[in-house]
Please model this.
Amino acid sequence: MENKNIAYFGPKATFTHEAALKYFHKNNNFIPVDRIEDVFRKVINDDADFGVVPAENSIAGTIVDTIDLFVQTKLKIYDQISIEIIQNLLSKTTKEKIKKIYSHPHSIHQCSKYLLDNFPNIEYIESTSNSKAAILVCKDPDSASIGPILCAAEYGLNVIEKNINDFKHNETKFFIISKNFVDQLKKKSMIIFSVPNVPGSLFHALKIFKKTKINMTRIESRPSKLKKWDYVFIIEYENSEIKSRNEKMLKLMQKHCDYFNYLGSY
Amino acid sequence: MENKNIAYFGPKATFTHEAALKYFHKNNNFIPVDRIEDVFRKVINDDADFGVVPAENSIAGTIVDTIDLFVQTKLKIYDQISIEIIQNLLSKTTKEKIKKIYSHPHSIHQCSKYLLDNFPNIEYIESTSNSKAAILVCKDPDSASIGPILCAAEYGLNVIEKNINDFKHNETKFFIISKNFVDQLKKKSMIIFSVPNVPGSLFHALKIFKKTKINMTRIESRPSKLKKWDYVFIIEYENSEIKSRNEKMLKLMQKHCDYFNYLGSY
Model:
């Protein structure tokens, strides 16, 4: 795919940017936007052909902002891509001279063992993104930031130490979103639904999966945002190789649910 | 209850502080700590008798940091308290003179309609908490921040405009945590569990609820943090007035699950 407009959750050099560059050929137009919501808006308004947004992290779990936007809009999941989250210490100075560290609080948290061992008495300044932290480091010679390798290249910083995460199995799945899903069954699919507000109604929905022998891999509830303490449910499941089973499950779910939205396969 | 040490997710004047002051008599010692994790740690180390942490917001959903800490520690839910989340515009100057707004990005998001209507061309500076934003406003005469009324009193700011949220039904539930739960069944209870990694295993767990006629009100999956893409499940349910039903459900779940933790009733 070339010459497409690809909106991603920015700024430049975030992990989402890394995911976008891994999925799409470089001969596309990559557009960083400030919020996940803005990625959806760009695709809705045809300012972008595709969007790239974080979907789930292996440690932090579901990115709920993304899930909620599927409930609020009609956008679909076109595909999925995973990348390993590797945090690095970035600076213009040497390790010994670092006096303070700018970082998103999540990144400090992910590297807390390394930071405690290597910088027990340093000043931490929280920023709202790793890219913003990198920009501050450019202006402050005795400081460092935490972030992806891409951040070093983008903002002219040196990689002082590679892979400083405490957990080494940190991976994030990103969704490629668009106005339409691909009409081809891949490994997994995702649906969002709400059930009638009577006891046993959620159980009945889950029974449909059991009956059609479709294996759920994940279930979440999210506030419906229409009524207080009212929920929608999100299920990720593995598509059966027996096509009729998937079709039957979807048909039964659609019949049972108040609201039903098939998001796509990936 | 008096003369107890109460740790809460701070800094001072957060919504969690407000919840702590609503639940506990003022003759207690209130201790603000920086992270939800630190609230749990204070209680574990007996530096606090109780902790106060956010559990669920009616718009943003489950506070996953809190849920994850119940998986990692042995702390219990002692009780629950809800407060309405009311955002206000706080400043030392008058509305006309406000040139920039400091705020947590979530608060900007929650008040975006009001801000667009009233301050279409203003500069926004993101901070990592509303209390930190209020501290910055104290030093910057032409600025304002967004936050709870308590923030105005705590940092000597004036309330320029009350209740500026876009959604008027914004409520957060907080858990009062301690080393032990109260041995008394209240309206709801919460359990955390994992099931054997075989198809249909989660369904079997949910069937136990159906069989014992216990109504689930919420279900979530969270990364187990032990193995990549492996999950634990959290269920909130309504306690049956027929005591034996609750007991039977817990007994059957304990037998079926690999890992099972009853958190308490509230």
Observations:
- The first strand of chain A starts at residue 5 and ends at 9.
- The radius of gyration of chain A is 21 Å.
